Hints:
Layout: E1 2-9, H1 15-29, H2 36-54, E2 58-65, E3 68-75, H3 96-102, E4 105-110, E5 116-122, H4 130-135, H5 141-147, H6 152-156, E6 170-177, H7 178-201, H8 213-233, H9 236-242, E7 264-270, H10 279-297, H11 308-325, H12 358-361, E8 367-371, E9 376-379, H13 381-387, H14 391-394, H15 405-421, E10 431-436, E11 442-453, E12 459-467
Antiparallel strand pairs: 1-2, 2-3, 3-5, 4-5, 6-7, 8-9, 8-12, 10-11, 11-12
Helix pairs in contact: 1-2, 2-3, 7-8, 7-10, 7-11, 7-15, 8-10, 10-11
Amino acid sequence: xxxxxxxxxxxxxxxxxxxxxxxxxxxxxxxxxxxxxxxxxxxxxxxxxxxxxxxxxxxxxxxxxxxxxxxxxxxxxxxxxxxxxxxxxxxxxxxxxxxxxxxxxxxxxxxxxxxxxxxxxxxxxxxxxxxxxxxxxxxxxxxxxxxxxxxxxxxxxxxxxxxxxxxxxxxxxxxxxxxxxxxxxxxxxxxxxxxxxxxxxxxxxxxxxxxxxxxxxxxxxxxxxxxxxxxxxxxxxxxxxxxxxxxxxxxxxxxxxxxxxxxxxxxxxxxxxxxxxxxxxxxxxxxxxxxxxxxxxxxxxxxxxxxxxxxxxxxxxxxxxxxxxxxxxxxxxxxxxxxxxxxxxxxxxxxxxxxxxxxxxxxxxxxxxxxxxxxxxxxxxxxxxxxxxxxxxxxxxxxxxxxxxxxxxxxxxxxxxxxxxxxxxxxxxxxxxxxxxxxxxxxxxxxxxxxxxxxxxxxxxxxxxxxxx
Length: 469
């Protein structure tokens, strides 16, 4: 490789942004602006991992290859990264898997006398549709497994032979809501990463007690591996990765949950010997996520706070493992209760974004507006009448109020992914959906959602409803 330019960076969160700008600038000079988007995403993943895990200075180098460019990120930590493989519906947390999908080649090298170098080559040959990139379609897991230990986490939760003296304990998550959990898992991965960055810049004050971040990540990894293992055994992982796409060249306008992912799943989480002490890991995960939720509510993190259903499912999962490690029998998931109490402290409602609601409130069309907390902040009178509500009674309620129960978890999962990744397949796309009338019957409507900017980086989503005969 002929190196065109290099940039040395410190192990701080802003380095990812500096790396993106540097790589883009060099690609522009090389006349390869067509590779800029993929290069920005890939180098962001690698630099962010180096900041969070290597914790040393790093160097980004960009050079020419035959027909493309090679980008390298070197650091002084000799520990090699591992490729973590998420389920088919994951849109974040893949790390090197994202880079693998974007790059024509990918590798890691040990450096002499110490450290490592992560490199990838872009030549434009890895172009895929947005849907394929997000779902991981075309990711050759067999080829990648030769270089990366994809089964590392799964082997940790594989049950040992029954009857052995050191046989680990098993915690059962009965009736886990799969789509809701997959969305929660993505949010956890993203928010824990942000929490790690935040803590590096804001050390604990004297006397302040913080959850152990490393233990929280261990618990998250155990959950992720156990769910992935259960999906694989159920035959859902392969189907989810390759299927659920319409055979027609025109996508369906009817919104429906993916058919090949189970609604619920019994998950077996195998704990190591001495499981009575394992509860500390899952208590640490709850506490760390609570800390992150409070920071997000105060606008100290980029991510918005999780929706209540996301908090409820992770609390249930953690509390099931904690209780079962102490000998309590498992309790199936019963859905989110509106009166959630217990160990989770009540959080204050986030301040609504500053936004002029007159466009919706005074409209003669059926319009509704929701904020990024998924609450209705404005409703036109025709929309309220269509749905059987008074305007004042509907404003302030959660969006799930007007969504049929069988689609609520799908909605929460999709909206959580949007908040986590910024991507959405429904914005600006007309869809035929059922809406829930106040008396309980369903109305078939055409739905069109657009995003409107609000203050401080917040967002408002404006939806129009057109009844269908």
